[in-house]
Each structure stands twice: as structure tokens, then as C-alpha cells.
Amino acid sequence: MFKVEIHAPNRKEKDKILKTEILNRESYEIFEDLNKLCGGKALHAIAKKNEPLIAYEVYKGFTLVFKANKISSTFYVKTTYSFGDIRDLGIFTSNKIRITKPEDAHSALKAIQGIKEAKEVLVISDVKFTQYKKLIEHASTASTASTASTASTASTASTASKKKELSPEDLLKKLERHSEIGKKGELFAIEYEKKRLKDSYRSITEAELEQAIKHIAITDVATGYDIESHYNGESRYIEVKTTISKAESDFFFSLNEYEVLKAKGEEAYIYRIFF
């Protein structure tokens, strides 16, 4: 049993504090992460028999409503966002999902900005924390791309006489190019890691190298890092950041990546690759 305080406005008070309890750890971890992402404030919240229903606008255009049940969590989301149809992401393949209207799913959804205007919502049962993190990763990527697109469009508008505004097709090609660069950097990092292990352990075989180094990013983009390396009691969890720009250029670091690598401590590494 976890005691929590939920900050959410209502009709009478701008900053209502709702004190309640969450009865299972999985829901509590989701609550804690959402609360951190959203600066400690929810859009809406109600509590009945220690089973709070809480809505957060995690990113612009992405509102997530979750209910902390006694032994699990239920998500209420729109079917489609800028990053795709929720059902096509491959995250909730083992969950029970039903489609309904906001007022039929839960009466509170009629008052929640970002959900109330939807013609239908998905009700996803028994959501795990790992599934939640994967969903947030998808939404985060879309939000970053959207922000970059908005900034690019604003810059283009200010110099309309000199530059042509990016079309959706051109933007997609640009994002695909970034993805290709990232994959190329990950493969380069794997080869570097193989060389490092060979230099450190002269007797290591090719079979042992294949077993020691795993390219995590090709099967799970929400892990928080791209590569794992384990050999002779030494472990490295490697996030690869690749650029074709100047060495001092910035790179994007998601909240998930930060938290995961922070938890790994001295075993966490960032490999910065320049082409």
C-alpha cells in the first residue's frame, strides 16, 4: 500500500491536492514516473476506494489516463496519435483491449482535455510498467520530431523569401536519414567494443565475442541504451549517440535513457560517434 498526493485542478480550486493510496507497486511506479514527467501536476484526478483515476498531459497532443486498480493498472487512450495507432505499436499484444466511447469507459473522461473530444478510446487492462515505458518512448520520439518540425517551420517562415518550407515527405526523409545514421553509429560502436575486448583479453574467441556483445536496440527501443557488453565479470550498458555534424554539437537524451543509465552507475557508458 502506497500513500500518494495528487495535484490536480478542479472547478473550485486551481491546485487541488487529493490524498489517497495506491494498492499495487506496478501502478505506483507508473504514477511516480508520470508525476515526475509532468512536473507533479495532473490534468484531472478522482479517487474511489483507493483506486485513483489520474490524467496527465505527458506531451502536447498526448494525454494518458490511467486507473490504479487493486492489483493492476488500466490505461485510457485515444486509438491514434501522431506516432501511430496504439494497437499497431506491438506493446500491448498480450493485454485485453476494448474500444468504447469516453462516457461509456468512465464518466470522468468526459471532463478530461485530450480525451473528451475523442470519438472512441482504447481501454487497456493489466498494463505493466515496462509497457508503459515503451509507450512513453514512442510518444517522446514523436514529440521531439514535432518540436523540431515546429522550430524548423517557424525558422522557415521568418526567412520565407530565402528558404523553402519542408514538406511532410522531406521531413520524413530527414528523420529516416537520422535513423540510418544512428544505426550506422551503433554498428561502429559494436566493432569498437569487440576491439576493446580483444585488446583487453587476448584469448577471447569470436564465439565469445558474439555472446558477450548484444545489440539491444534492434529488438527493444525502450530499454534506455543500445548495446550490452558482458565478459569476465565486466559489464557495460552503452548508449550510442551519433552525428555527422561538429564534435561539439548537442545530442538528444531522453528521460528514460537518463534514468536507466543513472541506475546502472559505473557500468553506464555513452559512446559518441562522429562520421
Secondary-structure element series:
EEHEEEEEEEHEHHHEEEHE
The class by helix and strand makeup works out as alpha+beta
Strand content: 25-35%
Q: Count of helices? A: 6
Shape label: elongated
Cα radius of gyration in angstroms: 22 Å
Number of domains: 2
Q: What is the mean pLDDT?
A: 82
The largest β sheet comes out as: 6 strands, antiparallel
Question: Which range best describes the helical content: under 10%, 10-25%, 25-40%, 40-55%, 55-70% or over 70%?
Answer: 25-40%
**Could you give the count of β-strands?**
14
Distance between the ends: 51 Å
Catalogue the unreliable spans. Answer: 148-152, 154-164
What strand order characterises the main sheet?
3-4-5-6-10-9
What does this structure look like?
The relative contact order is 0.09. This protein has helices at 25-37, 102-105, 129-158, 168-200, 206-212, 255-264, and strands at residues 2-8, 16-22, 44-46, 53-59, 62-68, 73-78, 80-81, 84-85, 97-100, 121-124, 213-215, 227-231, 234-243, 268-274. It has 6 helices and 14 strands. It is elongated, with a radius of gyration of 22 Å. The chain has a 6-stranded antiparallel sheet with strand order 3-4-5-6-10-9. Strands 11-12-13-14 form a 4-stranded mixed sheet, sandwiched between helices. The longest helix has 33 residues, at 168-200. A hairpin with a 6-residue loop joins strand 3 (44-46) and strand 4. With 275 residues, the protein is of the alpha+beta class.
